Amino acid sequence: MTVPTRKSHERAGKRSVSLAQSLINEVEERTGRTGFSSVVAEALEEWLAAQKLGEVVTADREEFGPVSAEALEQAEREW
Fold first, then answer.
1. pLDDT the model gives residue 9
2. What pTM was computed for the model?
């Protein structure tokens, strides 16, 4: 799944993170050292999108309650 990335002209910030060396090695084998940051940025964009979606689902369930079995069956039929 590819999600839109933040505007390329946005100022970059730096953070220090600790990752398993095997993970670093695998990413660098595929991207080279210069592509590492873009892979991390894309992964974080996807994580944020999932978090935001979870917040929307939680708010919906709080307002309207859980999805009924009947609604789930209808959605599955239409899918």
1. 79
2. 0.71
